Amino acid sequence: MIRQILLAAITFGAVAALDSSEANANTLCIRPVEESADKVRFVQTHFMVAALQCRYDSSSKLPELYNDFVRGHDIHLKNSEAPLRAFLKRQGEQTLDTYMVTIANKVSLQSTKLTEFCDRTEAAAELSNHASSPEALLELMPVRYQRPAARCISEPVSLRY
User: Fold this and answer.
1) N or C terminus: fewer CB in 10 A for the chain?
2) Quick check: pTM over 0.90?
């Protein structure tokens, strides 16, 4: 009898530890809908940074193209807000505004290392109104997208006893 109780306690402890590590992994990971939202906001931020950095080039159309992008993809931008906020809340990190500033700073820093940043971004922005979603433009961005966390393996599982 003691052996069965001990075995049950060990098994329960192992399951609890596994569930705990899975819960921690799911807290620190990014879900598909959140990653999609992050990509949408990355593209938007990339265009915004370029519109600001390249606006003094007399041939640049980036400020107008950025405004067209925001108007044309307004629904994608709005729909990205809640999932991205949920991800940031689960991370226990910053607000959406602070996170967007962080992305803008990264894009800005990386852009200084690219010789054709303005031209390449403008070419992508010119295609933006033909894209079904901002995510479709991701591969055209001169600064590469980096996922902010590992992808979630599965949705959190709640145990019922």
Assistant:
1) C
2) no
